[in-house]
Amino acid sequence: MPRAFITGITGQDGQHLAEFLHGRGYDVYGMIKGQNNPRASKLQEEMPFVELISGDLADLPSLVAALQQAQPDEVYNLGAISFVALSFSQAELTANITGLGVLRMLEAIRMVGGTRDNPIRFYQASSSEMFGEVRETPQTELTPFHPRSPYGCAKVFGHDIVVNYRESYGLHASSGILFNHEGPRRGIEFVTRKVTNAAARISLGLQHELVMGNLDSKRDWGYAGDYVKGMWLMLQQDEPDDYVLATGETHSIEELVVRAFGEVGIDDWQKYVRQDPKFFRPAEVDLLIGDASKAKEKLGWEPEVDFPALVKMMVENDLALEKAKAGL
Ligand code: NAP
């Protein structure tokens, strides 16, 4: 059986990827950080097939030990400080985990067996936030980077060091430049989930207001379940490379709000939504829209869930969760 090692296993993508790989007959190992991580037991309940190994992207020896234990064929580096807003207040931590963590993972692979004779294949979770103040629209693998947050800057370092290690040491290392992807497992701090959860709670009378930042920003939103398949496809290619995964459609945050509230039968959403400058980013990313033609052509990858279906899925999930929590 092929063996996969995933960092960020407790995150949205880690869980989707673990399920996907398990379904394909992989032995799945997930790296868990901390001495008493509260997300570990929940993960083990939901996915008992994942073998958890302790480690931290800030600690190279722990990465080496984890790889020695897992002996993986494929490594997926999804672990990161991934919330852009937090990266502004904890920029050094973000640089260390989201940026330098990639370098440590690559070094660990070189030490444990990422040579031409024994190639561990590596996937890096790069991000559309690297494009930031976009130089062209839509963005492709060749669009220059202009990150607008410490998170975006750290991802650019991670991306570049993957390219450098691939070229310098012949590692089978690929990066997916993924545009936003969401789903019921998205953390509540992220804007899509914040909106779908608020729409559900407001419709149930459990919440009265939704306080938002910039409603005009535009994003290219897909479904996480579609995107993890793309990650896996990248590692099945003979040659490593970089690929944009995106839907090619862009929607404003206001459109997201209108649609989510519409799902729960609220048309006068303005009554409930207030904007507060405290939720605006110090530097904004106004328009992200990706061109995934290369992934379509070379990987045969295409997103299956569209924006309306994604919002509906997330609102329905939040309605069920909130009803159960409130005993309704
Ligand atoms: P997520 O839900 O925020 O998950 C982040 C994961 O990183 C969590 O499992 C977290 O573990 C782990 N982590 C944090 N600090 C760590 C450390 N020091 N050592 C090891 N692991 C650590 O993120 P996601 O949405 O699944 O995204 C997965 C990856 O794709 C991230 O790298 C993200 O930046 C990138 N990405 C995401 C999107 C998107 O739209 N979702 C788009 C482009 C790129 P704990 O639970 O223990 O804190």
From TrEMBL:
Protein name as it appears in the record: GDP-mannose 4,6-dehydratase
Lineage, top ranks: Bacteria, Bacillati, Actinomycetota, Acidimicrobiia, Acidimicrobiales
Gene it is expressed from: gmd
Keyword check for Nuclease: no
GO MF annotations, alphabetized: GDP-mannose 4,6-dehydratase activity; NADP+ binding
Cofactor(s) listed in the protein's UniProt record: NADP(+)
HAMAP family: GDP_Man_dehydratase
One of the GO biological process terms: 'de novo' GDP-L-fucose biosynthetic process
Superkingdom of origin: Bacteria
Reaction catalysis annotation: GDP-alpha-D-mannose = GDP-4-dehydro-alpha-D-rhamnose + H2O
EC number: 4.2.1.47
Protein family per UniProt: Belongs to the NAD(P)-dependent epimerase/dehydratase family. GDP-mannose 4,6-dehydratase subfamily.
Annotated PANTHER family: GDP-MANNOSE 4,6 DEHYDRATASE (PTHR43715:SF1), GDP-MANNOSE 4,6-DEHYDRATASE (PTHR43715)
UniProtKB keywords: Lyase, NADP
Limits of the NAD(P)-binding domain: 5-314
NCBIfam families, alphabetized: gmd
Function: Catalyzes the conversion of GDP-D-mannose to GDP-4-dehydro-6-deoxy-D-mannose.
Pfam family, one: GDP_Man_Dehyd
Top-rank EC class of the record's enzyme: lyase
Keyword NADP among UniProt keywords: yes
